[in-house]
Design the sequence.
């Protein structure tokens, strides 16, 4: 081990010092306020789960990126995402829950993946789920919540766009063509074509022939289909009466009612990299093209049943904390957040400390954020520290003030001063 390596956080993880934690809390506050406005309830789950909850056999990168270990005969893993944990919670109480559920969680996730700008191995994620609703009204509500968050943090409406597709529409297209005799290949095929933005069309074509077993012509046909950017053109590739095409049209109709349809576009290349998606899928992306997807999600009607629960429709999204902070930084929208200190109480000498303690206690009981200066620095230093902390005022208690039974209170913005009666020594 390199010298002092143990004093650094593992690569791809973060320490949160007070200023960073204030920023994280600010962002989480926006997540929670949007969820509140959309009437979602908060839940949470263990960060350590049984590894089987996340291990599927469709070749997903997320399975290869698990932080997992054996302990006392159990195969455990740090969760890489929240949706399986939430699904497990639904299964545990399915008989007692009233559907549809509107749940959200903000949790830490772990993936041992290659790091780029906006991508770390540890991140926090805002997961929002609608469980038990089969119609695209669920997806429309979720997409509206995402745009509400973008608007709330001050991003211009042109800064982020949403791309929408349907796994069901893609499946209808492929099952009448290259997958007519191989329906089981659909999920791993989706995992492969999700990589097109990362590795390019040629590399995806090679994977489709090498890993999925398509012919060169079939692989090229699949990749060419991913370039479709018109819902009408995509719908023309499936049989008349396609339920998936009708769902997408209904989704855009609802998004228009939400006032966000002009910020959403159809894109046949969006499939998402998780095998469990079954219907509408969507990704929000930086319109400037410098960052990875800001968030994404979709419908996963089969996951709860696959995990051993009842057949239950579900849709949701995951929204990480890393990319959005990069995007806000690019737009100059990250706030400078001062400490939330309202008052500082300063005893000039140890003789006045009991009076200072009673004073700060009274301020705290009144609901104010009050800091007691520890030790006895010079008054000038105490005032500088109070100003740096963002305090509104400093309460100074010296021998003269103590003798008169008051504290000298100085407004740190205006410089005005007043005397405030000290609490009774018996209180």
Sequence:
């Amino acid at each position: 081990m390199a010298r002092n390596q143990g004093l650094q956080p593992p690569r791809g993880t973060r320490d949160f010092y007070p200023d960073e934690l204030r920023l994280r809390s600010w962002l989480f506050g926006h997540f929670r306020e949007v969820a509140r406005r959309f009437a979602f309830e908060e839940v949470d789950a263990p960060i350590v789960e049984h590894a089987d909850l996340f291990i599927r056999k469709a070749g997903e990168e997320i399975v290869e990126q698990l932080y997992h270990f054996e302990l006392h005969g159990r195969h455990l893993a740090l969760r890489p995402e929240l949706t399986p944990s939430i699904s497990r919670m639904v299964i545990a109480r399915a008989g007692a829950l009233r559907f549809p559920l509107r749940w959200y969680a903000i949790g830490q996730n772990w993936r041992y993946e290659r790091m780029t700008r906006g991508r770390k191995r540890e991140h926090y994620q805002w997961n929002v789920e609608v469980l038990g609703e089969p119609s695209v009204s669920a997806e429309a509500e979720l997409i509206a919540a995402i745009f509400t968050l973008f608007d709330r943090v001050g991003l211009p409406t042109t800064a982020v766009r949403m791309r929408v597709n349907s796994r069901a529409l893609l499946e209808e297209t492929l099952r009448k063509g290259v997958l007519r005799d191989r329906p089981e290949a659909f999920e791993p095929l989706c995992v492969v074509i999700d990589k097109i933005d990362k590795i390019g069309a040629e590399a995806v074509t090679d994977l489709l022939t090498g890993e999925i077993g398509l012919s060169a012509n079939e692989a090229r046909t699949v990749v060419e289909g991913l370039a479709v950017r018109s819902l009408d053109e995509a719908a023309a590739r499936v049989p008349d009466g396609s339920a998936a095409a009708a769902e997408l049209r209904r989704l855009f109709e609802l998004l228009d009612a939400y006032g966000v349809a002009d910020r959403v576009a159809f894109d046949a290349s969006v499939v998402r990299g998780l095998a469990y998606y079954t219907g509408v899928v969507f990704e929000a992306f930086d319109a400037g093209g410098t960052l990875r997807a800001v968030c994404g999600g979709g419908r996963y009607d089969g996951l709860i049943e696959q995990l051993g629960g009842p057949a239950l429709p579900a849709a949701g999204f995951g929204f990480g904390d890393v990319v959005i902070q990069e995007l806000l930084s690019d737009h100059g929208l990250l706030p400078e957040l001062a400490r939330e200190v309202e008052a500082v109480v300063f005893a000039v000498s140890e003789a006045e400390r009991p009076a200072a303690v009673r004073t700060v206690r009274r301020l705290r009981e009144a609901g104010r954020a009050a800091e007691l200066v520890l030790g006895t620095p010079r008054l000038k230093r105490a005032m500088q520290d109070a100003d740096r902390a963002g305090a509104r005022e400093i309460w100074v208690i010296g021998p003269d003030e103590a003798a008169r039974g008051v504290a000298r209170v100085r407004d740190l913005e205006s410089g005005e001063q007043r005397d405030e009666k000290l609490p009774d020594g018996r209180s």
Q: What stands out?
A: The radius of gyration is 28 Å.
